[in-house]
Amino acid sequence: MQRIYFDNAATTSLDPSVLEAMMPYLTEKFGNPSSIYSYGRESRLAIENARKSVAKILNAHPAEIFFTSGGTESSNTIITAAIRDLGCKHIISSPIEHHATLHSVEYLHHNDEIKLSFVKVLPSGHIDLEDLEKLLADSEERSLVTLMHANNEIGNLLDLHAVGDLCQKYNAIFHSDTVQTVGHYPFDLRNTPVHFITGAGHKFHGPKGVGILYINENVKIKPYIHGGSQERNMRAGTENLYGIVGFAKALEIATANYEKDSAYIKDLKTYMKEQLQKNFSGLSFNGDVDGRSLYTVLNVSFPKNEKSEMILFNLDINHICVSGGSACTSGVDIGSHVIRAINNNPNQVPVRFSFSKHNTKEEVDAVVEKLKGLV
Ligand SMILES: Cc1ncc(COP(=O)(O)O)c(C=O)c1O
């Protein structure tokens, strides 16, 4: 049986054209970008061209783009730097962030005694901006606000401008985990009031293990990883040359096809929602599914019973890949912290379907048909 992959918020397949662009750097063009002879210069040029391309797409300056190993490293770098270098003594975040953020801020809170506040989350899954303003206004210390752009479990989109404006008003630093939106959303960083954003290549048909960190030119931080002078002294270690080339190529493809692909994927999400509503009773959708929501993610809760409790397991047996929360790294299923924060109903089983341009309505039909026997 053919596998159906509806877990594109966890990771996506590598685009063959991306692999093609990477291949020379996995084979004959292997020079160390720091070497001064021609082999090295060729690699350096590939990295700088990738940086220019990424910066142009995001409407940033190339000097504001740094390549890293992915979203986790990028977020760790800036959260640590905001405390160490930018005078932030108070972190304001939310209980629905990805663990890359949550576990970083909790670590700093417990080990460095940094004040940590969680902004209220509304039942829609959106951040309560009034509560955010109150937290900022009441803060006696400079704050770091770290709030994700699109939630990887429910798809809700944050209003970057509204949050950025509040941060400016209260002289706070603003970081947004944009891992789910880089490659899926038209950024205009020069006109967006944000100090830092992050991205990961594997979320938009690029390679795994490569990402970016955008550092607005008006903020200066020190590196997180120490060593050589790579990435203009901001991120030591021999560059992931083929990964960086692949990241830029994947972003170029995603950007060129954004209108077409986003409309297609949005249509699939709507179709799946309608088919679920038509065929099942007692469902509820998590997040602002018809409002400010990323077109790739659909999160639905089924009523809990003996059958539905086993839904993820049974879908897996039937070669259907979906997830109950974010990609589970520990192997221990303790449920989703995001769903718990917005809708703590123990009698429901949440399932996340997340789509890509490779999915089809026929696959949606097949999954809905299979679900009929499983819940
Ligand atoms: C919202 C979000 N932030 C951060 C990450 C971590 O990115 P990476 O796996 O590239 O470190 C992910 C990926 O799972 C994510 O979805």
What descriptors fit this protein?
375 residues; cysteine desulfurase; single chain; 13% strand; 2 domains; metal-binding; 40% helix; binds pyridoxal-5'-phosphate; Aspartate Aminotransferase, domain 2; PyrdxlP-dep_Trfase_small; 12 strands; globular; three-stranded antiparallel sheet; seven-stranded mixed sheet; iron-sulfur
Gist of the model:
The protein is of the alpha/beta class. It has helices spanning 16-26, 38-58, 71-85, 99-112, 129-138, 160-169, 230-233, 241-256, 258-279, 311-317, 337-342, 361-374; strands spanning 4-5, 65-68, 90-93, 115-118, 143-146, 173-176, 196-200, 211-215, 284-285, 297-303, 320-321, 348-354. The chain has a seven-stranded mixed beta sheet, sandwiched between helices. Strands 9-10-12 form a three-stranded antiparallel beta sheet, with helices on one face.
Architecture overview:
Residues 328-332 have low confidence and may be disordered. It contains twelve helices and twelve strands. The protein has helices spanning 16-26, 38-58, 71-85, 99-112, 129-138, 160-169, 230-233, 241-256, 258-279, 311-317, 337-342, 361-374, and strands at residues 4-5, 65-68, 90-93, 115-118, 143-146, 173-176, 196-200, 211-215, 284-285, 297-303, 320-321, 348-354. The longest helix has 22 residues, at 258-279. With 375 residues, it is α/β, with parallel strands linked by helices. The protein folds into two domains: 4-12 and 258-374, Alpha-Beta Complex (Aspartate Aminotransferase, domain 1); 16-256, Type I PLP-dependent aspartate aminotransferase-like (Major domain) (Aspartate Aminotransferase, domain 2, 3-Layer(aba) Sandwich). Pyridoxal-5'-phosphate is lined by residues 70-72, 98, 100, 148, 152, 177, 179-180, 200, 211, 326-327.
